[in-house]
Amino acid sequence: MLHFNLIAAVCQNSGIGLNGDLPWSLKSEYEYFTQTTKRRSDIIKHNVVIMGRLTYLSIPKHERPLAERINVVLSTTLSPIDLPKDVLLFPNLESAMRRLEQTDLCERIETVWIVGGSGIYREAMSSPRCHRLYITIIKQHFNCDVFFPKIPNCFKEIEPDPETPLGVQEEHGVQYEYKIFQK
Ligand SMILES: NC(=O)c1ccc[n+]([C@@H]2O[C@H](COP(=O)([O-])OP(=O)(O)OC[C@H]3O[C@@H](n4cnc5c(N)ncnc54)[C@H](OP(=O)(O)O)[C@@H]3O)[C@@H](O)[C@H]2O)c1
């Protein structure tokens, strides 16, 4: 069975989004997201990023699809012609995962990342396929209209990866910390 990890930045009031965008502007935090989802030990393989329609559309046009990763969008309202040719479209998470593990693509995949938003995070955390949660805990309240679901009790914090910056980070007076949880 093909597994996945999840990555999200979550503020103190559990928010992740506002008006179709991130509620904050944290350059280094976004760089951590990019580096983590790109990182692979075998350069012949690729990582996959799976996201909902609104998360895909929240990425600035010139930055999407996310570079050096196979982009998968979940939507029941978009059709393939609405997306660049190299973006894969599926109606739900399980159909995307089944297709990824069935095709010859599977041998070329290193890590599958779930990158939001809210409903997909919820579905992902309740799936037996879910291995790790990479959560940036932002130690501040932000006005938000999209929220991260409650993390199920079966996930426990583990030691950070060697690549994870340790301790409290700070940008523009906003403090945050990188955490990893595993089932
Ligand atoms: N802080 C973070 O780490 C982070 C990460 C990602 C996104 N965000 C923010 O979150 C917001 C977008 O997230 P969102 O939750 O509003 O939307 P979303 O999950 O990105 O997109 C929702 C759409 O995805 C499709 N979908 C397919 N399967 C789904 C499923 N299992 N559950 C829910 N939707 C599914 C549906 O599209 P159809 O209606 O076409 O069927 C649904 O309307 C933006 O503000 C973005 O900036 C923050």
TrEMBL record:
Q: Name one Pfam family in it.
A: DHFR_1
* Enzymatic reactions: (6S)-5,6,7,8-tetrahydrofolate + NADP(+) = 7,8-dihydrofolate + NADPH + H(+)
Residues annotated as coiled-coil are none
Query: Which SUPFAM superfamilies does its entry note?
Result: Dihydrofolate reductase-like
The segment(s) forming the DHFR domain are 3-183
EC number(s) stated in the UniProt entry for this protein: 1.5.1.3
Q: Which InterPro entries match?
A: DHFR, DHFR-like_dom_sf, DHFR_CS, DHFR_dom
Q: Which molecular function GO terms apply here? A: dihydrofolate reductase activity; NADP binding
Class of enzymatic activity (EC top level): oxidoreductase
Q: Which UniProt keywords apply?
A: NADP, One-carbon metabolism, Oxidoreductase
Q: In which pathway does it act?
A: Cofactor biosynthesis; tetrahydrofolate biosynthesis; 5,6,7,8-tetrahydrofolate from 7,8-dihydrofolate: step 1/1
Note whether Oxidoreductase occurs among the keywords: yes
Give the record's GO biological process terms: dihydrofolate metabolic process; folic acid metabolic process; one-carbon metabolic process; tetrahydrofolate biosynthetic process
Presence of keyword Oxidoreductase: yes
An annotated GO cellular component: mitochondrion
What's the stated role of this polypeptide? Key enzyme in folate metabolism. Catalyzes an essential reaction for de novo glycine and purine synthesis, and for DNA precursor synthesis.
Q: In which family does this protein belong, per the annotation?
A: Belongs to the dihydrofolate reductase family.
Protein name listed in UniProt: dihydrofolate reductase
